[in-house]
Amino acid sequence: MSELEEEKKESNVKARDVVRFALHYWRPRVKLGAGAAVLMLASVLMDAVVPVFTGRIVDAMTNVKTDGAAAMEAAWWAFGGFALLALLHQGLRLLSLFLWNQFAVDNLQSIVTDGLQKVQRFSADWHANTFAGGTVRKITRGMWAFDSFEDTILMGLLPAITIMIGVTVMLTLSLPTVGIAATLMILAYCAVSIWMSVKILAPRFRASAEFDTKVGANLADIITGNPTVKAFGAEAREDQNFRDTVKFWRDKSLNAWQTGVGADGVRSVMRLFMMVSMIATTIVLGKSGQATPGDIVLVITTFFIIGGYLRDIGMHISHLQRAISDMEDIIGFWMREDDVADAATAKPLAVRHGQRPDIIAFDAVGFKYPNTGKSIYSDMSVDIRAGEKLALVGPSGSGKSTFVKLIQRLYNVTEGVIRIDGQDISQVTLESLRRSISLVPQDPILFHRSLSENIAYGNRGATQAEIEAAAKKAFAHDFIMSLPKGYDTLVGERGVKLSGGERQRVAIARAILADAPILILDEATSSLDSISEHYIQQALDRLTEGRTTITIAHRLSTIQKADRILVFDQGRIIEQGDHATLMSNPHSRYKALYDMQALELIPELQDGEGAAEKPEKAALVAND
User: What does the pLDDT look like over 179-199, one tens digit per residue?
Assistant: First the structure.
């Protein structure tokens, strides 16, 4: 349960960051937002004038017996003004909301799409160390929090403050003593509300938001891992783990909400004191002849307007602080610099020599993962010839997977340079680099889309005939056609509706159709049965022809045809050569591994195994 302990840390998001974030989204549609705000201000200003007309109505009716028709005429004129104000108030308010809805929805659309755009470009290391469910929660919570934030400021606080100023100015002009006293009490009320929100409520709502993220992350983790939960009959255990997580959230949220109730109580007492003070002062003034009955009605009406808006201001300040707490994560995403990004002068990768890069070169490359201080590579130099079939071999954590990750530029090297066809990959666009590489991973991930869409993912312009041709080469066509909807079949989240072998064949078809000059295979046939593996290997042999191919080998029997084999150990290439050359050396590490695997003395060389045996290598294994 250590993951659920409260993190004692201050937010890195400052007030100026919140302002910058808001202005970033308001600026493109400032006319729409300003129009809505101005109309709303005009609407609430109608409220500010209401007490004047109600006071005049009372004064006129008080003088009916003495002034007769003139007093009634004055009363009707005051009533007409009151009715006109009410009509204008409603009309302007509705028009304001009509504009505001478009402004707000456009902002929400931009925030959620920008959030995904930003997160997608974070490094592989960031994604490996972050719960996907928690990230989704942060983006959606931040989107709705921004909606609350801008509603609170532009539709709540701004009108409330405007009418408070207008009402107190008119009250001061009519009854200076009461108006000045009301102004001082309003300022004190706002100061106390802000202090309580920033110093008392903000830390509690921030803690609640942190645990809300953990609830979402834990829920997504359990649902995604449901097959494993079922396999071990662990439903009750996961139920309890989730209940524990939710209880932490419940305790933090209840603490925040109850503290908010207490803050509302303090504000209510201050409003009550203000009402008593204003009315008592007016009565005293009336007794001395300095206030008319209409003035008393003016003060009472003014207080109820002020009291309502003061209550709203207190509520708005609390909502504003809560919204800012909920926005902190998505603002953090917005502020975060991409670990791996296009250089300012980046150009598309130009493969100049036919359909394949002339050479892939590691030149004195050094590298260490961001989350560990230990170096993986130091001064590594190796060239891969055009069209060469290269295999990478070595125990878990030796640096095989890191090698291909650096070619894809999932991480930046810390020293040296990697070139493809003579071009520094840090100076070419990421999109062009990765579109030049097809990847068939050991555990392929499919999208919950149709089989056609999954196969064509690397070649969006492919025709249905081309999709089916690729599927046939990967021996996927027959099983696809046996499905009720054929190529239109939705595969489920991560391809869960398909077997492991079927997912692998779809991934191979996807790589065939992408037709990239560089091919990376992470033991692409490991999930297939023996018969399918035979045919798939033939398809892969045709696919790799004329292409630079890098295979991460777990079963050494599958790489005997490789042009060259690199044997890794602790981030170093300790041997290289083809299968026959390495096997001819009786002291070769490769020969020892091959012989032991042939005799089934060791399992496949899976990345990730052995991490528990050597704790000092755990960080490397997790990344490699």
Answer: 888 888 888 888 888 888 888
